[in-house]
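We read letters as residues; the fold follows as tokens. Both lines appear below.
***
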Amino acid sequence: MKQLTPEQIKDNWDKLIQLIKDTFPEDYPDNRREKLLKMYHYFEDRMCMAPASGKEHFHNAHVGGYVEHVLHVIDCAVQLKEVWVNNNAKINFTDEELIFAAMHHDLGKVGDMDKDYYVPQDSEWHRKNRGEIFTHNGELSYMTVTDRAIFLLGQFQIPMSENEYIGLRLTDGLYEEANKSYYISWNPGWALKSNIAYILHQADSMATHIEYDMWKHGVEESEKKHQEKYQNLLGNLKTDDSESKEKPAEAKEVNLNKKSKDLFNELFGDV
């Protein structure tokens, strides 16, 4: 499982807060910037530690994974918007609207006002056999992540534009059943009036798959290094055994026991 250092967690949080200050003007109607900062201050202790998912083979299922994922989605969204622009797509939304929707598409994964959405999985069987590092908090009332995000924004009276609402609501694409009527319509008049939802869904999908690749690459590298270390240690044991053929039997047994213990400790830690 990927692990962020305390310094990385703090750095990601500082980046998120600075992005809010840089993106949203102070004189926005209803003082939206200050309301956003108030919300993030309220959730700071929980949000900066929250994972982005519960299973290790999904994406960012580690402490600090939520904020890292949000920053990643924002970065991908800004890049993808330029790809659409360069291909003559119609852009009828602002960068502020794009960033607001990307920033809050997964806000529901924070939980409610008092309780976390994800809690550590305390079943060793589920951790080992299903890769569940975290599990959903059974104390929460059921809501989709998107509905909970909109609910939380409402708790702090944070307004949003129509583009922001559509973008935030549809970021999960057709992975969310409730989005089907937005994306698939037989009535031309009901087709989406903005490309913001398509760009955000692509950004979320892109970030999620890259995060998975990073996790998978890390697991494969860890297993490769573990096997190399194991083979090197076995090779050292064989070399030492050949060098000790002329030694008395008692001396060879002591040497083998020591090397076996060293091998065990190297692989599994001192006991």
User: Anything to note?
Assistant: The longest strand covers residues 118-120. The first helix runs from residue 6 to 23. DSSP finds ten helices and two strands in the chain. The beta strands are 118-120, 134-136.
